[in-house]
Amino acid sequence: MATNPSTAAVTDTGYRLTRLNLACQPASSGTKSTIMIPSTTDTALTTSTCSATSTTISTRAYDIIAHTNPTVKFDRLVAADRYDKQSNPNGIINLGTAENKLCADILSKKLAEFQHKPEEETLNYYPQLKGAPSFRSAVAKFIELHFKANHRIDPENLVVLCGTTPVLETLSFAVAEHGDYFMIPTPYYHRIYNDINDRAGINSLNVPLYGMEGDINKAYDLTRAAFEKTYEDAVTKGLKVKGIVLLSPHNPTGDIYTKDQLVDILNFANKYKLHVIMDEIYALSVFDTYKDNFTSVLQLDVPDPDRVHVVWGFSKDFGLSGYRVGCVYSRNQQLIKYFETTAIFAMPAAPILQRLEYLISDTDWVEKDYLPVYQRRLRESFDVVKQRLEKHGIRVYPSQASFFIWADVTKYMRERSFKAEEELLSRILQAKVYVMTGQHNYSCEPGWLRIIFSVNREQLNIGLDRIESVLFKIEKEQADKPEHISRL
Ligand SMILES: Cc1ncc(COP(=O)(O)O)c(C=O)c1O
Fold first, then answer.
1. Of the residues 85, 100, 165, 382, which has the fewest C-beta atoms closer than 10 A?
2. Using one digit for the tens of pLDDT, what is the confidence trace for 173-217?
3. Whose CA is nearest to atom 14 of ligand 1?
4. Residue 485 Cα, ligand 1 centroid: separation in angstroms?
5. ∠ CA(397), CA(400), CA(404), 5° rounding?
6. 8-state DSSP, 67
7. Mutation to probe ligand 1, out of 172, 184, 188, 191 (largest number of atoms < 8 A from CB)
8. 368-395 pLDDT, tens digit each
């Protein structure tokens, strides 16, 4: 089969993507970096069905569908066989999509109180490009209060889009040129690569952080030295580095960067005039035991305010990923103008914004009824999964926030390799649980799984029972053939 010359990773055996271990290396300019999808499920996970020669779409659109995209592949897989207690009890339990269902009871009660006023016919027509002014004012007040900003959040510096995903894409397009690089510490939320690369054409320059060796409590240490080294190596190779993407609280580790770490990275960015895209979408998803640990970049005196941009949305902290609402806050007026100019491509619906405004404007409800329960339930669910995995001798990263168990599963792998990681994933998928591997999340070391714990407790328990059944089988196989352990 003919290959698309601009898609280096497509082979003549079909769209089976070669593995480039890009977690620790930059992709060369113009080349898409790829990650490996479990081979046993390749057919089910393949995105593209057309060939380069017969394509009826543009080369750039073709490049995007031919490139590995875990979101599309797993969305199809789960949708085809979704668990339902009554109609499909043997279906797939989804512990892979970062959704938050922990407080669905509290949220649906609150949203049911909301009365849409039919006489508000302004809702029927185009809203202001940046987002309805009253909504932006409500978000500005909300962020100022809950992120403990050290300055007034001006609603004019906020633009609302349908999700933080289009916000990240728009930012990438706006602050760098096609082929430039953004530095991203590994591991990281798998979509970041698609968000910056698919259409904006920005490459990832991965800053490798490690978690496998030594004390897990000291893993993934974010230091300026790691950034300096990666930056110098990249510049020596002639790569154009334009920005940094930071996630705090972090997906998948659940880390919260300290004030000192943030200041160090901001100073590093300022030295080289790099933009800092600060994704704080999990800002309020902090376990109750650590609730005062989160430092927003908005609390700091940033050295270059024109190059620091904060991203937040309703998908995580309020578990409303179906509403599709996210925003950017930036003091860079040209950037805000660019967002305003292109906002019409990705505007949320006015009635949705009105409902969300109702929710976040009730500060008493947020502070007294919602957050304490939410943050307690987060920690409780984390503990349930952690304890069950630790019984099997699995090391769990000491997360402080977000929805993820980041687990070192090397013990259950045939060898310490990405291939063996995929094999373990295949067995878990065969047991009808969807989770993600470390490699999907650009870990530079094999051996990790990411498990979402923010689903309802009944499904979480079924998912864990199924994962445990796989672990028990492997334990038995290892007892029968103990020599594999010495290979790790
Ligand atoms: C760190 C991070 N940023 C952004 C998003 C995307 O959120 P949205 O639903 O607002 O597009 C996610 C979703 O998993 C995420 O984990």
1. 85
2. 999 999 999 999 999 999 999 999 999 999 999 999 999 888 898
3. 98
4. 37
5. 60
6. S
7. 191
8. 999 999 999 999 999 999 999 999 999 9
